[in-house]
Amino acid sequence: MTAAQIGDEVNILQERFNAPKAEVGKVIVGQDALLHRLLLGLLAEGHVLIEGVPGLAKTLAISTLADTLDVKFSRIQFTPDMLPGDITGTQIFNPKDGTYSVKRGPVFGNLVLADEINRAPAKVQAALLQAMQERQVTLGDETMDLEEPFLVLATQNPIEQEGTYPLPEAQLDRFMLKVIITYPSKEDEIKVLDRMAGAVAVPKASKVMSPAEILAAREVVRQIFVDDKVKRYVVELVSATRDPIAAGMTELENLIENGASVRASINLIKVAKANALLEGRSYISPHDVKSIANDVLRHRILVTYEAEAEGKSSDDVINIILDNVQVP
Q1: Each residue of 70-100: pLDDT tens digit?
Q2: Domains in the chain: ranges and CATH
Q3: 3-state secondary structure 37-50
Q4: What is the pLDDT of residues 183-197, one digit of tens each?
Q5: What predicted TM-score, i.e. pTM, was given to this entire model?
Q6: CA-to-CA distance for 149 and 215, rounded, in angstroms?
Q7: Cα separation of 117 and 276, whole Å?
């Protein structure tokens, strides 16, 4: 496509993606940032981890978004007694003819909600790794492709530690975005009360977008223009997480245990492209990168004990880097 054609497609798609936003808005009050990032994951082909205390509509937001899309939605409630086969499926022996048949698990969906993912042990969490990275599932000697679009949307509770199994860094890295959600404003909470505890029945979202439209939108996202200066800016940001001294940020010398991998740079570009489309632009700007940098990087930077003792999180480190790396 030419630049003009891409621009026209971007304008059409920006308007088109207002439809699922409006439908989700019928049910969910506020949480605009969360919905925006769920759509970014959908467009950028990346999985999303949502962290927040109970009662902030994490699960409801995901299930409502699924209601707006004409796709297969699967929900997996993670528990400590789960087995990997509860996610991927298993082979069932047929004694009559001595053969095995495949019973597919809930991971064979388009949108897969992994609810309270940190409640299951490591071997169960790892059952998602192949599906998330390779879009495939192997059962016995058979490897099956997952149908596109395929997206894992996971939730976890950050404050409850008993009976939980923290996600290892290798699995965290599979998530394109880690979104932190907080309490709503007082005004939004009053609206929640009116909608959820009022006399009128809670509204339902309608299906307004097909899988074909999502896949077509992804093709347009891939065509979004990225200037070399923006690529250099992304690399400078990620490099600063690995060697802050070389980047001239001596205040971070003892705060970072491990920096972000190359996957972080790739995902920053992908998500920035998706963000540009949702904002109606056929090119990405440094603003696109800065606006989603925390969500892409916060789970890829491991801070030291010294940082924790000083009360500094990975978000604090990212904000320092964003303030110090020169914007093109």
Answers
A1: 999 999 999 888 888 899 888 787 887 877 7
A2: 22-215 (3.40.50.300), 224-324 (1.10.8.80)
A3: HHHHHHHHCCEEEE
A4: 888 888 888 888 777
A5: 0.90
A6: 7
A7: 30
